[in-house]
Amino acid sequence: MSPQEIKRCRHSKENKLFVFGAIITILLLILLLAGSFAREEVITDLRSDMIAQHREQHPSVRDLDDGAVLKELSAEDKDLLSALDFYYWYVVLFAPVALFLLLLFVMGRHYGQLKANSVQINKHQYPEVQQLFADMARELGFETTPELYLVNGNGSLNAYATCVPGHRDFAAIYSDILERCLKNRDMHTLKFILGHELGHIKFNHVRWWYSALTIWMNLPVIKYFFGLPLSRARELGCDKISAALTNDTSGRALMMLSVGKYAYLDIDLDAYVREQFDKPSFWSWLSNLTNDHTVLAWRIAAIRKRHQAGLLFRNKH
Q: How many CB atoms lie within 10 A of CB 313?
């Protein structure tokens, strides 16, 4: 695939949401940094506001001095004032470094567990799968093929991609998917699923800075307007990568996620998509709104009609 073809696979709304999130994150960091240089004034003003508000809400303490009122503040207010004792410019600047170190530890630990308790797919273990994965990685322009691991999913059907920051990209596929695809000689579905994960790596979704620059978008309530739509855009873009790698025009591979590893080949896809679109449901729309993956029928329709599925509202099927 050419760089232009890969670029066209990315959902049109993803970059807009990411850039918006990154700008807000940087502005917040700048504001926090600027505020840290006026630390004493910020703390003094906040303390005065808390004391005044507490006096207004509790007439019995109106005659007490400020020091006594401070002792009467709620635990939350006291915790906030205590936290501000550490509000220095170097603490603000260290926050991104701390986040990087935290992610490095978490993902490094996960990578270690994966190497210790899973099987790496390579030239000795499922070499045909490794070759398929390497061929797709090469087609997407990877200089080094990410590592691929086989994980015991205990019946779950999933695959994922991530990285150890500054060290290595890797992906994992659950054993039930691999076993059933090989049993059915369904390399198309296997290729689609693995291609989707390579898409996440190619589009930098697994990078620590991607998460850091959009971290505020996943806060409660806010996530329904920014974080979850961004996640859905990422998933839809990776579906497009898979469809391009496999020349898929049906979306059948996604049915395994809906009806399981035994029935997915037996479903009438035309009827399934038609039923989902001809009978619009508020509850399906609400499910889409509150999930990090787009409604499955919308994803399948996007592949079949080669359009960008809507993040909030469905497109025509």
A: 10
Whats the size of the chain, residue-wise? Answer: 317
Strand blocks (E) in the chain: 119-120, 147-151, 159-164, 168-174
Q: In b/e form, how buried is each residue of 84-108, taking b as 16+ CB within 10 angstroms?
A: beebeeeebeeeeeeeeeebeeebe
Distances (CA, A) of 18 to 10, 104, 202, 256: 12, 22, 15, 30
pLDDT digits (tens, 9 = 90+) for 56-84: 888 887 788 888 888 888 888 888 888 88
- pLDDT above 70 covers a percentage of the chain that reads 99
In angstroms, what CA-CA distances link 299 with 223, 257, 284, 313?
21, 12, 13, 12
Bridge partners, 174 (sequence order): 151
Q: What is the per-residue pLDDT across 142-184, written as a single tens digit (0 to 9) for each?
A: 999 999 999 998 888 999 999 998 788 999 999 999 999 999 9
pLDDT score recorded for residue 274:
85
Largest CA distance in the chain: 82
Tens digit of each residue's pLDDT (9 = 90 or more) over 285-301: 888 899 999 989 889 98
Pairing between strand 147-151 and 168-174?
Answer: parallel
Name the pairing type of β-strands 119-120 and 147-151: antiparallel
How far from chain centre, in Å, is Cα 48?
A: 41
Question: 252-258: which pairs have CB atoms within 8 A and are 24 or more residues apart?
Answer: 252/189, 253/188, 253/189, 253/192, 253/193, 254/192, 254/296, 254/299, 254/300, 254/303, 255/296, 255/300, 256/157, 256/177, 256/180, 256/189, 256/193, 257/157, 257/296, 258/296
Inter-residue contact 42 to 265 (CB < 8 Å): no
Integer Cα distance of 284 and 271 in angstroms: 17
For residue 311, the SS3 value is coil
Helix (H) / strand (E) element for 215: namely none
